[in-house]
């Protein structure tokens, strides 16, 4: 297994919801940006929730996130991983979550799948003080969830009013 590294977060001072994946896939690592595998439904789900066109470029993806107060990162900064398999993760090193929480007033944390939830609970929840909402993974490996159901569940979490 080879050690791989993630890339930095997408956020600004207006970000209120932090979405965390586990670790970038092979395609995302090659592209240098999140959810680059065209079979991953992440960008289609967000576009449907916010009733916008599916973003194609990195700039469009960043704009979609930031225009809705979203921050995006992964739970792990680096690890040893075989391909894109979360099950193969070894030597996990968490991100410095304060990079985001120092500058943005994060009110809610959503995690993309159970692996992200596990590592968030283990390494980061005590630092943020915010329990994560675990959503079904948008990965193509999660074939039990259709796009419509993912959009419904993610939309309920993203559009929930504070309070």
UniProtKB/TrEMBL annotation:
Q: Which InterPro entries does this UniProt record tie to the protein?
A: Hypoxan-DNA_Glyclase, Uracil-DNA_glycosylase-like, Uracil-DNA_glycosylase-like_sf
A Pfam match is: UDG
| Coiled-coil spans in chain | none
Signal peptide positions (record):
none
Name of the protein in its database record: Uracil-DNA glycosylase-like domain-containing protein
Under the heading CDD domains, the entry gives: UDG-F6_HDG
Domain Uracil-DNA glycosylase-like: residue ranges: 8-158
Domain of life of the source: Bacteria
